[in-house]
Amino acid sequence: MDIRVVQSRKQTLVGDSKITVLRIDPGRWELELMGVFQTGESGGHTAREWSKKQKYAAAINAGMFQTDGKTHLGYLRSGDRVYNGRLNSYQSVMAFDPRQPGKVAAFRIFDLDSPGVDLQAILADYASAVQNLRLVKHPGLNQWAQQGREWSEAAGEDSQGRVLFIYSRSPFSMHDLNQELLGAGIGLVAAQHMEGGPEAQLYVHAGDTELEMFGSYETAFKESDENSAAWPVPNVIGVRQRATAH
Predict the structure, then answer these.
(1) How many domains does the chain have?
(2) Which stretches within the chain are classed as H helix?
(3) pLDDT of residue 41
(4) Residue range of the domain that includes 94
(5) What pLDDT score was predicted for residue 150?
(6) What local confidence, expressed as pLDDT, does residue 57 receive?
(7) Which of 14, 81, 168, 236 is geometrically suited to a Cys-Cys bond with 59, CB 3.0 to 4.6 A?
(8) Contact 142, 179 (CB under 8 A)
(9) What are the residues facing 96 on neighbouring strands?
(10) Does residue 98 have a cis peptide bond before it, meaning omega lies within 30 degrees of 0?
(11) Nearest to 194 by CA among 146, 135, 145, 144
């Protein structure tokens, strides 16, 4: 696991125009979906609180959620439990927990509109799957035209199959964020949008490093960089060290 800070080429409206990329080797670290759908709690926690409760080394939003404050937007499966069985129009599915480790990659982001790819085929190989809004399609294709809305946070896959947790306090349009990431030399081949604005979070606590990062600016929601505390979120993807490396 390592952290890189990318200075964007384009200056953002507010903030320092920096993007933090946490790179994770899925052979040494495992991902886990966690949220109120599993704990039965009435409300969520910050990424830091989820990490403390579940002993994660890192955590990021699992994705956007519905107005009930709990339900993930799009398909969501963790192990043998399906927490949202509705497949929507989002074209990106993150998959992990291989049913036969070593036979398929430990982690993969799939494009549902690619030939031969569908949800059932993914679930035949992986026990956990998270559908989210697509940002970058394999093999590194920006899927967003320019538009006026700005926010910041994503998860991706690099050319070596590693997990990328991507966070920016500074707001970008999705087109511009994709362009910055594709030009940053991080080997990005696929990415999906996880959250934006004050809910967007990335927490890391590994060794002597502890970082809590949370967003603020979101067009038409909170158009300022003044948010000073992480907001509770219902669902996260946590990272913990594997007992044995794969």
Answers:
(1) 1
(2) 36-39, 47-54, 119-125, 174-182
(3) 95
(4) 2-241
(5) 87
(6) 98
(7) 236
(8) yes
(9) 107, 128
(10) no
(11) 135
Residue 128 within a domain: yes
Structure tokens at 48: 């830091």
Whether this prediction's pTM lies above 0.90 is answered by yes
Residue type present at position 245: A
The b-or-e profile of 203-237 (16+ CB within 10 A means b, else e) is bbbbeeeeeebbbbbbbeebeebebeebbebbbbb
Eight-class DSSP state of 91 = -
Give domain status of residue 160, yes or no. Answer: yes
What's the pLDDT score for residue 191? 98
Q: What type of residue sits at position 155? A: A
SS3 state at 224: coil
| Residue 150 domain-assigned (yes or no) | yes
Which pLDDT belongs to residue 246?
A: 73
Residues of the chain scoring pLDDT < 50: none
Classify residue 30: in a domain, yes or no.
yes
Helix (H, G, I), strand (E, B) or coil at 221: coil
| Entry field: residues in the chain | 246
d(CA 110, CA 164): 15
The per-residue pLDDT for 151 is: 81
